[in-house]
Amino acid sequence: MNDLVSVETLNKIHLKISMNVKIQRQNKRVTQLSLALAMGHKTAGLVAFAEAGINNKHFNIEHLATIAKILDISIIELFDGVDKILKKSD
Hints:
This protein is mainly α.
């Protein structure tokens, strides 16, 4: 049994989390720019790139905690579906 998570699985997890951020952000009617500004960034670059998975950008745990607070949601909502990805990789 291999306990390591493959790069492919990690990429799927990052994509799922990014999609969850985008869905939650849109549900709250928050733009990429306004979310980025609330996170302390000057442009929407981080949010836009991470949501799209461009340039190997992704949200780290600090970003996710901040996003959850800004959007007034549980951080667990941003991890919805990640367990299924991990179980498929077993």
